[in-house]
Write a structure and sequence with these properties.
2 domains; 18 strands; 4-stranded antiparallel sheet; 7 helices; alpha+beta; 8-stranded antiparallel sheet; 321 residues; globular
């Protein structure tokens, strides 16, 4: 089961100038570090119970390790305004049965109010003089907290019950370029609607019929195209579509898609060639972070990885840091 890091931007609304203003308003205009620690305590208070959303059918909490407290699982760093740690979340109203593998007579229905949790790492960065924060959250192949993470963090940034931020998936331009640079092209497809003139059944009049035409270009079995831009520039002059007396080159096709595979991440995706922002690179943590015998990821290494990612993406997010 592969594990990844999802990146989000937390963007404050027009009426809030910075996280400093918002946090101080929430916490009685204390000095900013004290206000930030009060914000952190509010964060822990929300997760000491279960935060859930009945529209999403998901819940989130913190389940500390035996003998530990909640503030051991989630830690704040007031020097650089970071909160990071592990949360536990997942769906509820899951209508399934649990069966004992040694004795199926001990099966039972899962309670519809039980939240079926997985443990996820998160990393929250709130540059105090900015309107944009960064949130990184672990995602697993078979489970994600996205549906509950968004309402949970929106609830943290309310003032007098009013939402003051939006949360958006973020794919840094530098990561997109890196993903492309380390990818090979597996195929390219071109789609176009074309009209042809045909005689009617009675051969009396000429009628127009429309067809959807798709061209797929792939390398031979043992080869890959190495560069997205270069290969398209190479091939587009060699492939043309002749329809009646009209000739269409590949540039004229309405839909142009490219399938690529990143060699380093062993990840494939398809994107629209005229819209490279639709490339959504993944950050695989399995080959970067150690896992113990119980499947727990090394927290020190996770934080170090997120520190590194944050430094890498700051130029994409902030004009001046």
């Amino acid at each position: 089961m592969a594990n990844y890091i999802d990146i989000y931007k937390i963007v404050l609304g027009a009426r809030v100038s910075s996280f400093k203003e918002l946090i101080k308003q929430q916490n009685g205009n204390k000095k900013i570090r004290k206000a930030f620690m009060s914000f952190y305590k509010s964060f822990l208070t929300k997760l000491s119970g279960i935060f859930y959303d009945d529209t999403k059918k998901m819940g989130i909490t913190v389940l500390p390790e035996p003998g530990k407290k909640i503030n051991d699982s989630v830690i704040a760093y007031s020097d650089n305004y970071i909160i990071e740690g592990f949360v536990d979340g997942g769906p509820y109203e899951v209508f399934k049965n649990a069966v004992n593998k040694l004795d199926k007579s001990k099966s039972h229905a899962i309670n519809r109010d039980d939240v079926l949790t997985d443990k996820f790492y998160f990393y929250l960065y709130l540059p105090i003089d900015s309107k944009i924060g960064i949130l990184m959250v672990q995602k697993k192949d078979n489970s994600s907290l996205r549906r509950i993470i968004v309402p949970f963090f929106e609830s943290l940034f309310k003032i007098n019950g009013k939402k003051k931020c939006s949360i958006q998936s973020f794919f840094p331009k530098s990561f997109i370029n890196s993903f492309k640079d380390n990818s090979v092209v597996k195929n390219m497809s071109f789609e176009k609607e074309c009209a042809v003139s045909v005689l009617s059944a009675e051969n009396a009049v000429i009628e127009e019929e429309k067809y959807d035409i798709k061209i797929v270009i792939s390398p031979t079995a043992n080869e890959d195209f190495s560069s997205i831009g270069n290969i398209f520039n190479k091939i587009k002059g060699h492939f043309k579509l002749l329809v009646d007396n009209n000739t269409f080159d590949l540039d004229s096709f309405e839909k142009k898609k490219c399938g690529i595979k990143n060699v380093e991440e062993n990840k494939s995706l398809t994107f629209t060639m005229d819209e490279e922002d639709t490339i959504h690179p993944v950050i695989n943590i399995d080959n970067r972070v150690d896992v113990d015998a119980n499947g727990n990821y090394n927290r020190t290494q996770l934080k170090a990885l997120c520190d590194e990612i944050l430094n890498d993406i700051k130029p994409d997010v902030y004009a001046v840091i």
